[in-house]
Design goal:
This protein has helices spanning about 5-10, 10-35, 40, 50-70, 80-110, 115, 120-150. With about 150 residues, the protein is mainly alpha-helical.
Length: about 150
């Protein structure tokens, strides 16, 4: 089976899931690299490009997602698609909740106070956008994994 046949055999929800992974995973990896691996991110600063990337990509993502979902008036999903979507949303919310709980506990800890106070506001903004985008990417990856499992 070649790629064209594989894409042709996918339903609308599976195509959207692959599109979500392809659009959000590179952004999440870019933000993680810029925040935690690069020299400027390790010092607690974020470049202007890094600071603006997360917010802009998120706005473009939401606009494209709404356009894809609302332009087609045909039947959007069946019960299987809804169950897969619920699992993806649950995984996304779980990651986002764990990230926010982890941040809350480390902010409250005196041991981590120097770390958080050394971070610039631009770094913190990029970090929270990273958390949001990474959780959305995980949700789409969960959906893709369930569709791939059902395809086998």
């Amino acid at each position: 089976m070649n790629l064209r046949e594989l894409i042709g055999s996918m339903n609308k929800q599976e195509r959207i899931a692959w599109l979500g992974v392809a659009s959000l995973m590179p952004v999440a990896l870019y933000l993680a690299w810029q925040l935690f691996v690069s020299a400027i991110g390790g010092e607690g600063h974020a470049s202007v490009a890094t600071q603006r990337t997360g917010g802009r990509i998120f706005m473009v993502y939401m606009a494209c997602y709404c356009w894809i979902v609302f332009r087609d008036k045909s039947r959007f999903s069946d019960e299987r698609d809804r169950l897969i979507a619920i699992r993806g949303v649950a995984a996304a919310y779980l990651l986002l909740a764990l990230a926010m709980i982890g941040v809350a506990f480390t902010i409250a800890s005196p041991r981590w106070q120097p770390y958080w106070t050394s971070r610039s506001p631009a770094w913190l903004e990029a970090f929270f956008m990273f958390c949001l985008i990474a959780s959305l990417a995980l949700g789409w990856c969960t959906r893709v994994a369930h569709y791939w499992r059902d395809r086998r």
